[in-house]
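FAQ: What does a multi-protein file look like?

Like this. Sequence, then tokens, then the next protein.
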Amino acid sequence: MMKFNYQAVNNEGKRLTGDITAGSPSLALRQLEQKGLTPLRLTEEQSKKRRSRRRLKAEELNVALYELATMLTAGVALSEAVAAQLKSAQHPVIEKAMEIMSNGLRQGQSFSDVLEASGLSLPVYVYQLVRAGEMTGALASSLKDAVDQMEYDRRTRDEMRSALIYPSILVGSGFSAVAIMFAFVVPKFTNLLEHADQLPLLAWFVLAAGQWTNNNATLLLAGVTLVATLLGLALSEKRIREQMINQCLHLPVLGTWLIQSQIAQWSKVLGTLLSNRVPLIEALVLSQDSTRLLRQRDLLERVTQDVRGGASLSDALEQYQAITPTGINLVRVGEKSGKLPQMLESLATLYDESSQSRMRRFLALIEPIAILIIGVMFGLIIAGIVLAITSANDLAI
């Protein structure tokens, strides 16, 4: 037997939540219909022991908050919506967070306060958007905008990771093949090193490298493992990861792609905050934290300081050349027309499309470059082996 959590509506139109035990989802739905309930949602309840082993995914968190925003938009009371999410939570982290939020709401705390106390790993702008929604009476739309922005951030990260999967596999496979050549193929000809003084330089180098690899395989494997471990630990540190990303800004194509993708994210966050009536200075402070580029963040901090001193956003952006002239014109038009949030949304779309184009161009360059490098390495190895064999034949004659 399996246990299911459900949301349903009775004959009077009242929304109900609960759990039911049945042998299959179809039997559970049949039981609900027999009780006169119209099922809206039915999910299988997993054991906490099983769920606790799974890391909370960003997509799961976004879905939970989106469902909460949808219920608020439909007119469901905040306390009831949180209670419904508590019963249908599919992950212990979300379940615990909803329990904390539900208890806090019963004690009369505001939603923004209980959300901060929930322990959920959320961007700073989410709390500001929720607080702005409470002040303006538009909590549902503010929460939905926050979730949309979180989903945009997640999608951007996933696209960048997915884009790098194929080049990583290509480069890794190539270097693995070269390593196998040095470890298993080249050592078969190392006996030719007995005539090292009469071998061509390339042949001697390839055979000597193969012999060293074969004799020091354990040391080499330990070194590779150590380097991979240190690299993994370094990438787990946010500061080191940001510094490595910033070093990539000097590379052609890749640097422009990174800058444009980060500015698109900044524009999207800033536009979302302003559309929810967050003051410009606060919105600038919050939005500049959305970029991972240290140089870009420094420029945006200077822009914020100038705006705080009385300068317009477009003039400050133009002074520090934080974005392109096209973007500055969009911001200036938005300021003059009173539609700055909409212009920032357009700017985000413009940069997003441009960064996608740069990404495709970057990936188009990686493949032939990687193939060329790996091909040259294979060619040198084969050429070294052939030269060694032909030299040995000459010596034999």
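And here is the next protein:
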Amino acid sequence: MRRIPACAFLTLTLLAPPASAQTLGTMPATLRYGSGLLDIPVALVLPHLAFTVTYSGFGVSAAETVVPDSPGQTIPAGGRFERWFSDGSLALGLFDRAEVGATLQHFADRDRGGRIYGTFGRLALLRPDGRGPGLAAGFRHVTSPSFGDGESGDVQPNRLGYPDWRVSRSTPGAEDFNGNFSPYLVGTLVFPGFAGSAPYDVTLHAGWGGGLFQAGRDLEFYRETSSGGVFAGAAVHFGLGDRRLVNLMAEFNGFDANAGVQIDLGGIRVGAFALGLQYDGETTFRSRKFGVLGSVAFCGGLRALCRGRRAPAPDTVTLPAPPPDTVVVVRQADREVPEGTSATLCLATGKSVDVRVTPAGDTLVGPPWIPVRELPPGLVFEGSYAEGHEWFESGDPIRFGGGEYVRTGDPSPRNCSDIVRVGEHENVPLFANRSAEAPFDVLHVPVRPGTWQAYQRR
């Protein structure tokens, strides 16, 4: 059973089929604390004004109830323990940099511990632009349960989110169990899928946290193993077309190996999960638990469900017709092709054209490698370019998708396979990274054949 987490990670990261690189949608919803995997946070946050409403529930079935008697020892205290626990949460994204929310755990009466309330927040310190690393810092704060007898004031919340009188600051064998406040730092790596098959992304996550990520590591009935607050997880996000998404997840939250699947049907998410895969059913905490999740994601700026950006399939993209004065050079060259360096120019149509630069500085197009300067008037590269347009020459910002974009950096080449057309401005096409999702952080504008200018969202 200890090999299950390793097998799950290998399955997620190595056996996924290759596909087009793209960010396929927002992250899945955690059981109680906004976006993430199942019980661990990630370095990504919800888009600005997007919010989610989530319900999760799982069943617990343990052979017996035990209580701590002395350090390292437990004794039986009752029969079989079976119950269904439910949790709800709200999460809101702010400025594409932060995510905040509230959670309501354990829908029960006061005699059974009452409801547990919580808040959480996360700040993205470094955001991956569709790929690469990300870093975030955050916290979870959960209130202590109350059993209504006035004698359980030191009872602490636990990682399963339900009131348990055995978990308190004075529990025998525990070193000041404190689960109210759980700060953490988490990093994320985003790997867009490889070109060739169904679209998918891979995300890897790892971090360290206090509070519930490590409290209780001294209690035998509470844990079998503990990482001292270190948590990690991986997910594969498969695109099914029509903006549908399947998320396969595996994680270790510092105590438990968990796995689950979540299907995003255009902003409506449903999922199933298993907690504590490495356990054998001995106690409430050290047992396998199975549950379900339902979540709805709204994009406040769009006033609609967060359906994500439809991923364009390379073999079905319809390119605009070439302008009337665009022709294809087909005549053969009567001379030998001079030596030179091969290069590829990305045109404003999203197509690439092969060129060769000679040692003398001539640019040849072809085959049959005709010098550009010998092309007669009217023969131009296809596509519409920003060079010469008044708005571009004067450095005016671009308004697109409800945001404003300003010029950043110097013009540079782009690879057509890395970008996709998302709109246009003053008859000049606008492109974004294939791995990006709306609202786009960066737009790419074709200045002239092979040269592109980046525009950053304010």
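Q: Is there any per-entry metadata?
A: Some entries carry free-text notes. For the entry above: Residues 227 and 449 are 54 Å apart (CA to CA).
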